[in-house]
Amino acid sequence: MRITDSLKYAILNKNLARIKQQIDTTQNKIASGKRITTPSDDPVSASSGIGLEAEKNMNNQYIRNLERLKTLGGFYDTGITSIHDLLTKAKEIAITQASSTMDDKTRKSSAEEIKGIIEQLVTIGNTKIGNSYIFGGEKAGVVPFTLESDYAVTFNGSENVSSVYVDKGTKEASGISGYKVFISDNNIFDGLKKLKDGLEANDQSKIAKSLDDLEAALSKTQANISHVGTYVSKIQSYIEYKDTRNLDIDGSLSQMMDVDIAQAVTEFNALSTAYEAMLYSMAKIQNLSVLNYLQ
Amino acid sequence: MSISSILNIAKNALSASQMAIQVTSHNISNVNTKGYARQAPVFEEESASFVGGILIGNGAKVDSVIRYYDRYLEKQLAGKNSEFQEQTIYSQYFERIEGILNEDSNKLTSSITEFFNSWQELSADPESTAVREGILAAATNMSRSINNIYNGLKNIQIELNNKLKLEIDDINNITSAISDLNKMIFEGSTSTSEANDYLNKRTEYIKELAGKLDINYFEDGFGRVTILTSKGKPLVDGGQSWQLTVMDDETTGFYNVGWKDASGNITDITSNITGGKTRGLIEMRDGQINDFIAYIDELAKAIIKEVNTVHKNGYTLNHNTSSTDPDNIAFFKEITGNFAKDMAVSDEIKADIKNIAAASKIDTEKRKPIGNGTALNIASLIDQNILEGGKSNIVEFTSSITNRIGQLTKSAKNFLEYSEDTMQIMEKQRESVSGVSLDEEMANLIKFQYAFQAASRLFTVADELFQSILRAV
Fold first, then answer.
1. Could you say which of A62, A267, B188, B472 is the most buried, measured as most Cβ atoms within 10 Å of its Cβ?
2. Chain-centroid distance, C-alpha B10
3. Across the interface, do A139 and B124 touch by the CB < 8 Å criterion?
4. B73 lies within 8 A of chain A by CB
5. Quick check: pTM over 0.90?
6. In this structure, are B310 and B352 located in the same domain?
7. ipTM of model
8. How large is the greatest C-alpha to C-alpha distance in chain A, in angstroms?
9. Does A22 share its domain with A65?
């Protein structure tokens, strides 16, 4: 084959361009730390990378939701524990005042104490975190409990609670409804009102009767405390599950997308050597001409 | 036989060597000219004459200048160039489209997940206005991302269309240049150096033309070339050339390619173009880009439609307490076509974020929205198969777009590389036949220089012979 001058240079040019391009690609990989910078580098990995990134994004949202539920759980725990304390106090008063040694006067002043307890319970029932009344159920925007002048309490919230997503297609209740805490099974406010009325009326038997109600209310509240406890630990384990899942995703993403630096650097060195060798041979070829011998 | 005939031979030899040196210098100066085929003088004996019954030679002359040229190789190269140029367009434009569809740059999928995540935020805090601001921002961001992708793709499509027109103009220039060269080649003798240069130029033009359009061509007995489109429409015949033209297609708004006959009638040959740059441009413009525009449109349409359906059934913070009906407010602007182009948050929502609904029911007495049903339903759309006729969800859909453009770009790059390699091999072969080697030319130069010097010497000899005779007189 005749090798002509322009062919000689054309081949060199072409190869130089090719090696330069490979060096550029390798350099990009090293600089960005990514094996895949465009989808065409590895279409399958690039597209599953998008799926995994999206899943991670959604998981982060689920974790946010769960963290919120966990915080909320803390508020419920504090609230319901206070309810328990207040009910215990009311029960003690009832026991004391149910005794025949107590008189009209002590019962009157105890009635005031019970009124205070009812007021405190209403305040707890109307706890607002951010924009939501946490005991309002689905009607988070409405004040859930209103105290009437006769110390009866009406519930304006809803029996159901809202839920939020904690996983793809899985919802979890946002806490516990005020209906369940205060109203259902045994209405805490009714029991307390009964006690207050009994005390005011100095009616020993009525006071004694209200004790049963308070007893039931206490055991319901105790059940609610453990319910919240279970709820929070369930949320916690969800969070851990989601965190682990995200770590797995990070692992897969890194395996798919990240460059093996050692390999890339070796490749880069090999290419640099090839490039230098080519420049060297180019310089040498330039000197190979009959013109050097014609003076 | 006379001394003056020696002078005559010397004169002829001198001019032959001079001509050979000229051809050599022409070769040397064209060492880097693209498409140049090296030339060589063909020496021939002058016809001998009888002197005293003996046939005696009369020196030499340059009979013709030939060019080293492989017709079949050139033809193959031209055909290969059609393929190569077409592949170049694919590779170039798929890379551009890939750039637009690359998640790293457009953040399409992440902006979509952000949008649906913002609805989850609302579901956790349905009364909040701050969260509603977040939804508006995420929706605007997502719409913009989709709009940008659409605009990017559309701009490429328009660019392809404009390029097609430029290519057609180029084709017309080339065909008319070839017909002019045909005339000159026909008029000049084919063996002169000048005609050889015309041939070189014409070969180069044909190769360029083949890069733009797949063609068939052949030469007639006078060295004139006839060029036809692959479907047989003449472009050049002898000294005549036919023009191509672009015509507006009313349905697509893009150009079609027309062929103009002698009386000016135009035939649409768009679908008959099966190779070259023009084919690449048309195929890209009408095929692949449209596919991707259609994908992004389907995505926008599904999001707009599904979100609006749910949102219209929701109750907003501005719910009118005199009614129990849902507020029927569209979240996205309701449009009937060009979804990706015009996707935007509706004016009601932009005007007042309290028009964003979180609740799917109301309190039957107080008629106030309760719960977070709408927010939950919209948030859950991201997992639902709302695309490809209920076959895939949003993330599956966007990742399949990425996969598709990735595959297309990858194979276009591979094809181009392959095509480039075969081109290179053929170019090498062509260079090996037609290319100029300076070393060779130097050797020739010395050879012809010595011949010239020797011929000059003849003059001195003839002169001395004359002198001797004159002295004797």
1. A62
2. 57
3. no
4. no
5. no
6. yes
7. 0.87
8. 140
9. no
